[in-house]
Amino acid sequence: MNPCIYNRIRSFFIAVSVVTSLFFSTTIFAENTASVIESKETQAPTFVLPGIDNTQVNLEDYRGKVVLVDFWASWCTPCIRSFPWMDEMVEKYGEKGFVVIAINMDQESILATKFLQRYPNKLTIAFDPQGVVAEQYEIMGLPNSFILNKKGEIVYKHIGFRLAELDKYEAEILSLLP
Fold it and tell me: Fewest CB within a 10 Å sphere: which of 81, 82, 112, 135?
């Protein structure tokens, strides 16, 4: 075999191996990482991001509400599991002032569109394909969520989504609602 072709094939398989490893390590990390509770409330970074149907999602518009800011991607298995639960929480507590802003991290918008068609929901969807807001929030995996109080301060932070902790997540939301 030609050495040039051999090196190209070898490089291709190494690249595929690295991408596959990163994908699975992120998924495993997100499923197995424990929740982190912020001990000191800090002001959440504000943002204005594009939303669905040419809308703008401005965090400042949600001041006075309890907000769960969730970073997700279409390929993230724990993210898929979190959507029905977040939707259920909005259904249960939306009238009390609870909202979810789900920020998609996919670089290709078609991936998010297909995901949202497959998993319809009542969440506020925003798009951050360049990861600018994700960087401000210093996310460490997907999904990564932040529960903000009515003053816009981060009270709880979670890396991953654990089915075993659903009661805990709901209790955190309830602790901030009237």
Answer: 135
